[in-house]
Every structure is written in C-alpha cells, then in structure tokens.
C-alpha cells in the first residue's frame, strides 16, 4: 500500500510568476532546470521529510498546449496538476495497476539537466485515463540529485494531503481501494463543501459544491485541485509564512497561502 507523497506538481504559464509568488508567501524555490523534452522547466521547494513541491511551466518559446507534461493544466494556469508516489520498482507497480484493470503509460525514462550541468534521471509511469491517480517514480541517479536536502523554512514539515476534485467521490474512492487498497473515505469539516478523507493516507476528496470547482472540472477534468503542507503549529508558521484566514480541518486548523495564485489551491494544515 503506497501512502507517502514523493512530490506534487503545481503548474502555470510562467515559471517566473510561480517562483515569485512562492517567494512572496515565504517559500524558497530552487531552479531545477529543463526537462529532457525541452518543453517544460521547473523549480523545487523541498521539505524536511524529503517530499517537495514542483513548480512547472512551459519553457520560453513553447506553447503550453505543446508541453510534454500536463499541457491542458499549464495552458489553463490551473495550479495543481499531478502528484507522485515513489515506488521500489516502477515496472512492478505498473503491473499491479494493469492487474487492477487500470491502463498505464510507461514505464518510461525521463530526465532533466540542472543549472550546474548535473543530469538527473528517473523512471516514471502514469496511470489511468484521468489524473486522479498519482504517477509513480523511481530514481536512476541518487535522490539528492533530484531533491535538495534542506528546506529554507523549518516551520514546514512536508507534503501532507492531496485534495482530488471528482464528480463522484464514491467512484473515486473505489478506484483508490482497487489500486492502492486505500480505506473508505470519512466526511470531515474542511476547505470544500463536500469533503472527505481516506484515513491514514494522503488522499482527500471533494465534490462540486460551488461554481469555481465546477468550472475547474469542466476545464481540466478530475484530479488534484489543492495541496496541503503539514506544519506543527499554524500560529508559529505565520511568523515566517504569509497565510490567509484560519479554516477548520476536522479537529485541526489549516490556511491557504495568502496569494491569488495559491488561494484555494496550496495551503498548510496542522499535523495531528
């Protein structure tokens, strides 16, 4: 059962704008270089637990629709695009998906060249006809080639929750039970009207309850719509992070980053 997030991807039209917004709310991205397709480049915001936020956008001169990763999401400036689990063997994980009746795209090799010239290489596999399911990854080169070791903000612990927007939470829960053996979701108070979590996993689900979420589903389909980073205490986190109003998250607290690019799409949640 895979329950730990390797990284999440947050996409847009301009990497400079994404990096600027991240810096303005207290995150410190490091430019990670261009992917081997030559159509996207990225920056990394690493966290102490080893997970990271990937900011991704088309390279200069590339139309978003021609991007090698998540072209529809990049063209729509959609923010959350995909999420990833690290696995011991991508090919074996792909076989498990196929046995569960889920089509796969991969495994395939991928790489990017860092600004210092170091080549980062990995194997990856996408699953399913939509982006609700995470893709899988396994490093070919040492992991610290891909992920910087340290975080610039010690109030952040690591990626905690991926919120998946879906038109049918029961069907999506069944998909995750079949593929990853996730437990049944439990409804809780949260940032969206129809909100539930799969206990012990990084997955939360939300169904349309307002026009904004409906519009997102129309534009980019089902899949991640928001990411939450774990913190030990929101009051302490506010000392170094720009956060919006407090929101109840079950018996805990959460808040979105206070920036128009991140509101409703990237936030923090207190750890239990």
TrEMBL record:
Protein name (Swiss-Prot/TrEMBL): VOC family protein
InterPro entries for this protein: Glyas_Bleomycin-R_OHBP_Dase, Glyoxalase-like_dom
Coiled coil residues, start to end: none
Domain of life of the native organism: Archaea
Record domain Glyoxalase-like: where: 5-177
């Amino acid at each position: 059962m895979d329950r730990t997030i390797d990284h999440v991807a947050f996409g847009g039209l301009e990497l400079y704008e994404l990096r600027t917004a991240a810096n303005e709310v207290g995150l410190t991205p490091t430019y990670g270089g261009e992917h081997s397709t030559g159509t996207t480049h990225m920056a990394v915001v690493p966290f102490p637990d080893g997970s990271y936020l990937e900011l991704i956008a088309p390279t200069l001169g590339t139309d978003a629709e021609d991007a090698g990763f998540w072209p529809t999401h990049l063209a729509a400036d959609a923010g959350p695009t995909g999420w990833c689990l690290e696995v011991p063997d991508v090919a074996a994980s792909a076989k498990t998906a196929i046995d569960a009746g889920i089509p796969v795209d991969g495994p395939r090799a991928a790489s990017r060249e860092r600004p210092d010239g170091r080549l980062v290489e990995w194997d990856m596999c996408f699953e399913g006809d939509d982006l609700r399911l995470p893709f899988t990854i396994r490093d070919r080169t040492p992991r610290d080639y891909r992920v910087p070791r340290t975080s610039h903000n010690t109030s952040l612990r690591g990626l905690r929750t991926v919120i998946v927007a879906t038109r049918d939470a029961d069907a999506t829960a069944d998909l995750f039970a079949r593929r990853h053996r996730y437990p049944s979701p439990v409804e809780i108070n949260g940032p969206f009207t129809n909100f539930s979590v799969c206990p012990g996993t990084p997955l939360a689900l939300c169904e349309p309850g307002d026009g904004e979420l409906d519009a997102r589903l129309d534009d980019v389909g089902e899949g991640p719509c928001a990411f939450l980073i774990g913190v030990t205490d929101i009051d302490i986190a506010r000392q170094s992070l720009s956060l919006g109003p407090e929101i109840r998250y079950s018996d805990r607290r959460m808040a979105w980053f206070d920036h128009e690019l991140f509101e409703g799409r990237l936030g923090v949640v207190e750890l239990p």
